[in-house]
Structure formats: C-alpha cells, structure tokens
Specification:
Blueprint (H helix, E strand, L loop, with lengths): L2 H17 L1 H21 L7 E7 L4 H11 L4 E6 L3 H9 L5 E5 L3 H6 L3 E8 L3 H30 L8 E8 L6 H22 L2 H8 L2 H5 L5 H31 L7 H26 L2 H19 L11 H7 L3 H15 L3 H25 L6
Parallel strand pairs: 1-2, 1-3, 4-5
Antiparallel strand pairs: 3-4
Length: about 375
C-alpha cells in the first residue's frame, strides 16, 4: 500500500466533504438530534396528567381524596366541573385526560364502609389511560389505608378492608385496546412517508439527471411544474388513506365513530402541507440524498417521536412539549383519534384543522417561491 497515494485520496475526499457544508451539517447534526429526541421522548414515566374534578360532596373527606391526586406528581388538577356534561366536554376537547367524580353521598357511605368514587380516563390514548388508571388505583389504596385507620380509631374496632371503592372506567376505548389508538397514528406516519419523503427527491432528481435544463427550456410555468410534481403523490396519498381506513376496520376492528368524510377532508389538508414541504426541500437542496435525509430529520422522525403517536407528550420535558407544537403530525393525530374514537364533529376539531390549513398554505407559498425556472 502506497501511503502517499492514500493520503492524496483522503485529502481530496476531505476537501469534498468540507465543501459540501450542508451534508457536513447533517452528518454532525443527525446523531446529536437523535440522542436528544430519543432521550427525551423515550420517557415511559407518566406525570402531570391533566385531571378534571367533579366534587358533588364538597366535604373535608372528599377534599382529602382530591388532595391526594393534586399532591401526586402523576396528576395535575386542570379544572373543576359542576356537571357530568361539563366534565365530558373537557375530556372530549382534550383539556383533561382524566376525570375524578365524587358523589354527593360520599361521606355517609364512607362511614358505612362502602363509599364509591369514579375515575374516568380518556381511552383514546390507550397507553396513557392504562398508566393513569393504575396510578389512580394506587392512590385509592393509599386513601383506603388512611380512612380505614381513622375509622378504626373512632369505632375502636378493626378497620374495614376497603371503605372506598374507586370505579375505574375508560371512555371512548373501554377495553383500552392499543390498536384503536395506533391505527389512526399509523395513517399519519404512512402519509408522511408517501408525502414528504417521496416528494423530497422529485425536483432534485431532475437536477441530477440533467433534465431540469430541458424543462426550463420549455414554455412551462412555475405553478404548472409545481402542481404536476405534486399531483401523482397526492392521488397515491389519498388512496393510501382509503386503504388504511378499510384495513383498520376490516383486520383490526378499529371503530370509526365519526363521519368518514371528515377523515378524508382533514387528510387532504395534512397531505397538502406534507407534499409541498417535501417539494420545497427538493427544490432548495437539489440533491436526492441530501433532500431525503433532510425530509427524514425534519418530518418523519419528529412525527414518529414527538407527535404523540409513540410516546405521550405529557411525559416529555416542558421544552420538548413546546417543540411538539411545531409538528403538524401532532394536530392530525389528535384529529384522527377524536374522529375515530370520540366520534366528534368539526365543531371540536376545527382549531387543529385550521392550524393544518395554515401550515399547508404556508408550504404551498414557500414551495412556489422556491421554484425558479432559470439556471443559476
């Protein structure tokens, strides 16, 4: 082996690497970003679950039970309700993930050793609901121990085995089937793969093959080229949504309680944003490998890890939770789970839908502005 020639080749390759600063930035940024994202997102502990309370008893005993929840690191009291309907609305619109109901006769039944309270979880996120109900059950056991000891001191007899029974329920997904929450999320992941990752190479491929110069020499206009590049993937993406909806119900019996038209309407908006985001990367970067890597880092991985698909957003540190608001997939997953499991209409999901529409419009404008039909 001739080390002189080896050194010459290595020197030449280093020069190429450092000249292509965008690839160099990606090479350095990818491991750092992956460690940060996985390190924060892969937190399986549950804390600060937003909880709404309907205390019909309003007694020191009921307040002691509520204090157990509010003092626990696992729950955070997000509000108080005066009716069953108000509590249901808070669970439907996502302002709370857990509901605690204390009946009016709580104290009387507690003294008789047969009190009940109800804990209701939003089952549209099965994993979070399962963990939250488990923690609630543990708090119920702790409260039982305190009350039983207190009753024993007052009566002078042995403590009742369980003076209070916590009735644990999961709305919208009573059996807490994980597949009911993962299938809507998989639809989002599939659309990201089809949209952002495939369109990210369309224009870049033209530049690498040398056919972009031929297109520039034709009378084609920017809107025609942009829409022509996007349209095939739009058709494929919407077809994939239809396939996923049918297979989800046929193979996994995932309930679709809302109107199917809402699924396709919101999917069309989300798909528009994802397609034009991928196209914008392809236009700006002009290299297939680089554009595809950027699409993976900027759309696929954040959607997979920070949208609530794989890991509960409530478990993440506050800075990462704030970052998730920049992930369009977060809003679309919430929309699909609400339509699928809660059967809600546009009056509940309108805000998330509006945010997706704004994002889609922004991506259309940026992709259009990025496309220049001239040689640089």
């Amino acid at each position: 082996m001739n080390f002189r020639r080896l050194r010459a080749v290595a020197r030449k390759e280093f020069i190429h690497v450092f000249r292509d600063w965008r690839s160099l930035v990606l090479a350095v940024a990818i491991p750092a970003l992956l460690i940060l994202i996985f390190g924060y997102a892969l937190d399986m502990d549950l804390d600060n679950v937003p909880t709404v309370v309907w205390d019909q008893s309003r007694t020191p005993e009921s307040r002691e039970l509520i204090a157990l929840f509010s003092g626990s690191p696992y729950f955070s009291i997000s509000g108080y309700s005066d009716s069953y309907g108000e509590m249901q609305r808070r669970l439907e619109n996502g302002k709370a993930l857990l509901g605690l109901v204390v009946p009016a006769d709580f104290v009387q039944r507690l003294r008789q050793g047969r009190a009940q309270a109800q804990v209701i979880a939003d089952g549209s996120d099965a994993n979070t609901a399962r963990l939250a109900l488990g923690y609630a059950s543990a708090l119920g056991a702790l409260y039982n121990g305190r009350v039983a000891a207190s009753l024993a001191r007052i009566s002078g007899r042995g403590a009742a085995a369980a003076p209070i029974v916590l009735e644990l329920r999961a709305w919208y997904n009573p059996d807490l089937r994980s597949v009911n929450t993962t299938v809507p999320g998989i639809i989002v992941i599939v659309m990201i793969v089809i949209a952002a990752m495939l369109t990210s190479v369309t224009v870049a491929r033209e530049w690498e093959l040398g056919t972009m110069e031929q297109l520039i020499g034709t009378p084609i206009r920017v809107p025609e080229l942009v829409l022509g590049k996007v349209l095939p993937y739009y058709v494929i993406g919407m077809a994939d949504v239809a396939i996923a909806v049918v297979l989800g119900q046929w193979l996994f019996q995932v309930p679709l309680r809302g109107h199917p038209a809402l699924v396709f309407f919101t999917a069309a908006i989300f798909l528009t944003g994802a397609l034009f985001f991928g196209l914008m990367l392809s236009i700006r970067l002009k290299a297939q490998v680089l554009a595809n890597q950027a699409a993976i880092m900027a759309s696929y991985l954040p959607t997979l890890l920070l949208s609530g698909f794989a890991f509960a957003i409530e478990n993440m540190p506050v800075p990462v939770q704030l970052l998730t608001y920049l992930i369009p997939g977060r809003y679309f997953i919430e929309i699909l789970r609400d339509i699928y499991l809660k059967g809600v209409g546009l009056e509940i999901i309108w805000f998330n839908t509006l945010l997706l529409a704004i994002y889609a419009a922004l991506m259309v404008v940026l992709a259009h502005k990025s496309m220049k039909l001239k040689l640089e």
